[in-house]
Amino acid sequence: MTAPPRPPEDPVPSPELLDELLDVALDAARQAGELLRDGRPADLGVAGTKSSPVDVVTEMDLASEKLVLELIGARRPADGYLGEEGSERPGTSGVRWVVDPLDGTVNYLYGLPSWAVSVAAELNGEAVVGVVYAPARGELFHAVLGGGAHLDGVRLSARPAQPWGQALIATGFNYVQRVRTRQAEVLLALMPEVRDIRRGGAAAVDLCDVAAGRLDGYYERGLAPWDRAAGCLIAAEAGALVGGRPGHGPDGELTVAAAPGVYEPLQERLARLRAWAD
Predict the structure, then answer these.
(1) What is the pLDDT of residues 194-237, one digit of tens each?
(2) 66, 69, 162, 244: most buried, per Cβ within 10 A?
(3) Rg (the chain; Cα; Å)
(4) Where does residue 229 rank: exposed (0-12), middle (13-18), buried (19+ CB within 10 A)?
């Protein structure tokens, strides 16, 4: 399922506005990514926890969010903002920034390369610009609504559909033990049916890997808006289908992104398993 058509009364964003939003998003993602890459202390530790004792936040998450919030505030002070580390402010322009200043914090903490800065701009509730910068992989993804998705300036296209039994599917796990246990049950049911399962540990990066044709599909329960906003737009603009539960778009219950031909059986199987429910 792709995003529903914009209602006729909603104004179409001008190319000039989209260019400005993309420029801000690229600057914010690059600067935050460079801070995280170059400023990571050797003795990096946990600064706090969120949903559970294993859902961690580091001092670098907080520093990255501060940088992004200040940059956007200086460039576009009338815009709203929603960030993972608790920053939220209303706006008056119709634009809201949805930011994960460090997606894949546990990977970052352990020195694994799959982590990113995710920056999306929404206009009247719809993502119109998305940027995901993965510095440790040296990759910068971006998309503009209606303008396609790109990796380091090269146009992306989702992988041609594979037979269901040959699909490579990625997923992620919640930090709450009860939810994680249920996710493991769903995974156990799916694993014998497909080529294999991958678990990268950063939702935004997984969604971009669908866009780049490195994965046939991806699903996850429990994603927050900042986890999926930029990555879902990038995947959709690369030709992937993006949705959630049947009849729903991507949300906190379920997010699904896959190449056409893989999306349908993946969503159907997840629906049979009630992958969003305990």
Answers:
(1) 999 999 999 999 999 999 999 999 999 999 999 999 999 999 99
(2) 244
(3) 18
(4) buried
The two beta strands, 56-58 and 46-49, are antiparallel
CA distances from 137 to 33, 114, 116, 220 (A): 11, 7, 9, 22
By C-alpha distance, which of 111, 93, 99, 98 is closest to 41? 111
Reply yes or no on whether the pLDDT at 7 is more than 50: no
Find residue 219's DSSP bridge partners: 171, 256
CA quadruple 245, 54, 138, 64: dihedral positive or negative?
Answer: positive
What Cα–Cα distance (Å) separates residue 258 from each residue in 53, 112, 242, 262? 32, 25, 7, 6
Whole-angstrom distance, CA of residue 198 vs CA of residue 210: 12
pTM for this entry: 0.93
User: Residue 143: phi, psi to the nearest 5?
Assistant: -150, 150
